[in-house]
Recover the amino acids of this structure.
């Protein structure tokens, strides 16, 4: 099973990492083009717009990440109708929020820029153009990341990656053309950003509207307050991180303006966008595990939760170590990429190397925060969010700025110390919040749900010769639990017919494939049979109906064993299919 978990993780991790990096590059492209082509005033204007882009991330966290966690849990439970309600509520709420935010921002544009730390002058004029155009495109800026999250939870991480790459390439091309050829200045950069997100929205929307998607927009209960609250619980900690970042960015901008002037604010813009880029590596891990953790938690599969944590946490630590080394050794090259002026070179290199000291702790906190959100411990995730993004950074930075000779470097040392203080508080909180029977750090049960003896589970390869042995073991298991012989025969029939169809039609022979079979004894001598495989998508519940006579005389031809599937449907009291995190899940209750 560990091999399957690892394969599934990397199936999501690769595209999610590329998507996260591309999104970070899209954000950094504005700053790089401004630094290389437009000068320091545009540089400062984009820095002032950081809280606006963070606001987009706040809304996307609630209606994207929060809804995605709920959707994956519901998919694990097989609640398709509820999925449609959550999906529709999240989509409409994100779109409406984008429209309202854009209108209000444009009405109060100048006061907003002053609040963000803007000062009268050339940078103020550039900020008006840049932020104003972003506000015009606010609905698309919000919907693009939300729809990409939905795609990942619909088991389409590669297409999600394609949408991000298409938008990123367009953003780079549009920025260069609009600035160089049409001389639109910073307005051209903003137009490139907005249109790239419009393109991403269109491409991802086309995929989500397919009939085969796991969830769809619905007119029935198109907006639900209960669904909104449900997605807010896991989404709020992530949203609060970004909200606190707005407050923190304002505090940092004002602190740097006092300790180092406009040039120090420009330095922080480079460092902030660099941190955003680095967090894309962490987002690759946390984004990959979110659908997996949600589905496994929804299905009560504790062992698979642990296996997912083991694989993904090792990757997170590896990435953190590599990033630390790259920052320490590659600081001069990074400055060249951003077009940093010679007068700012030493200041930015020092800031980058200080930030390298918190990469490993930042990776651990990002991983734990995502894990707790996905596994129903939103309160613990909120502790991390509040401590690591508001209480400790604000207080430590102000203390260092006012009572040490560090000057503008007090901001960067404060961010480093914040991670260590947050980890200390977290481990103290876990000792209090841990319940009996839960693991010390992950706060999940120490035993799988199937440890009570009423569940039989086996993992087999795609070999026909395994079927008789498994059927005999399941028959013995059912006999031990008092299941009548007639029902035991039906169970064996279902296993044989379903597994044979999976092996015949679903597997690609260039790799080892597995079938996960779980039999659960329910109340009233009912038995639930769940078969999960990593074959190509195949929904036996949607196979074309045929009469038993046609099937028996051979006049009905199909590439799969329609007679066997018909027999399964006849003997089952209920059956259902769902496609989750790249697996086919077929459930039969007898």
């Amino acid at each position: 099973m560990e091999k399957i978990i690892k394969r599934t993780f990397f199936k999501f991790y690769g595209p999610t990492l590329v998507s996260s990096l591309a999104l970070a590059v899209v954000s950094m492209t504005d700053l790089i083009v401004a630094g290389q082509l437009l000068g320091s005033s545009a540089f400062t204007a984009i820095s002032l717009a950081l809280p606006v882009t963070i606001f987009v991330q706040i809304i996307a966290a609630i209606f994207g990440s929060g809804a995605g966690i709920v959707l994956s849990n519901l998919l694990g439970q097989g609640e398709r109708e509820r999925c449609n309600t959550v999906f529709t509520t999240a989509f409409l709420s994100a779109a409406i929020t984008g429209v309202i935010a854009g209108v209000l921002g444009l009405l109060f544009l100048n006061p907003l820029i002053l609040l963000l730390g803007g000062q009268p002058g050339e940078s103020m004029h550039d900020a008006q153009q840049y932020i104003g155009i972003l506000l015009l495109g606010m609905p698309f800026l919000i919907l693009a990341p939300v729809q990409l999250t939905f795609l990942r939870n619909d088991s389409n991480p590669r297409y999600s990656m394609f949408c991000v790459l298409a938008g990123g390439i367009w953003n780079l091309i549009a920025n260069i053309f609009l600035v160089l050829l049409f001389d639109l200045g910073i307005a051209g950069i903003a137009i490139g950003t907005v249109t790239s997100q419009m393109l991403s929205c269109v491409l991802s929307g086309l995929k989500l509207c397919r009939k085969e998607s796991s969830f769809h927009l619905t007119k029935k209960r198109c907006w639900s307050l209960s669904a909104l609250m449900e997605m807010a619980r896991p989404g709020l900690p992530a949203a609060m991180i970004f909200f606190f970042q707005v407050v923190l960015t304002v505090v940092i901008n004002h602190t740097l303006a006092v300790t180092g002037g406009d040039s120090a604010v420009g330095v922080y813009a480079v460092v902030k966008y660099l941190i955003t880029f680095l967090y894309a590596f962490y987002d690759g891990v946390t984004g990959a595990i979110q659908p997996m953790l949600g589905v496994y938690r929804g299905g009560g599969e504790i062992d698979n939760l642990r296996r997912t944590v083991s694989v993904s946490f090792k990757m997170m630590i590896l990435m953190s170590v590599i990033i630390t080394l790259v920052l320490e050794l590659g600081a001069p090259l990074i400055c060249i990429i951003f077009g940093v002026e010679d007068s700012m070179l030493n200041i930015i290199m020092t800031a980058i190397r200080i930030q390298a000291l918190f990469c490993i702790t930042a990776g651990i906190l990002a991983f734990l925060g995502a894990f707790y959100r996905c596994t129903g411990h939103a309160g613990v995730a909120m502790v991390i969010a509040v401590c690591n993004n508001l209480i400790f950074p604000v207080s430590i930075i102000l203390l260092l700025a006012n009572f040490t000779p560090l000057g503008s470097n007090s901001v960067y040392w404060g961010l480093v110390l914040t991670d260590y203080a947050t980890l200390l508080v977290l481990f103290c909180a876990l000792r209090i919040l841990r319940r009996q029977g839960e693991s010390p750090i992950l706060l999940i049960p120490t035993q799988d749900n199937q440890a009570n003896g009423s569940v039989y589970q086996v993992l087999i390869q795609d070999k026909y010769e395994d079927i008789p042995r498994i059927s005999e073991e399941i028959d013995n298991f059912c006999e031990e639990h008092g299941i009548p012989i007639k029902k035991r025969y039906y169970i064996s029939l279902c296993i044989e017919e379903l597994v044979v169809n999976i092996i015949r039609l679903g597997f690609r022979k260039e790799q080892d494939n597995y079938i996960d079979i779980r039999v659960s004894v329910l109340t009233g001598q009912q038995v639930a049979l769940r078969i999960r495989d990593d074959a190509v998508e195949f929904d036996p519940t949607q196979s074309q109906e045929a009469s038993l006579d046609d099937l028996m005389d051979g006049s009905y031809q199909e590439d799969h064993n329609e007679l066997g599937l018909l027999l399964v449907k006849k003997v089952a009291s209920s059956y259902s299919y769902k496609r989750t995190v790249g697996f086919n899940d077929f459930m039969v209750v007898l």
